[in-house]
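User: My collaborator sent over this chain with a note saying "see what the structure looks like." That's all I know about it. Can you take a look?
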Amino acid sequence: MKPGFIIHLRNEPMNYWKLFELLPPDIEVMENPIQESVDFVHLFCTTQNELQKEAEPCKILLKRTECFG
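Assistant: Without extra context I'll predict from the sequence alone. Here is the result:
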């Protein structure tokens, strides 16, 4: 995560924010993002099936960049 990032969390643990000592400033959490609207998605899964089901819908939420163009 970088300063000013718009992020989306999916299935995050209850203590998610306590896991970080320092966070970049101005992080915005978007709960219901639309396609290509976030800089970072943090997806938590407990099974391979869940990962396969959730990964693609999360991928389309990411903004296009030169890396992912």
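A starting point for your reply to your collaborator: Residues 48-59 form the longest helix (12 residues).
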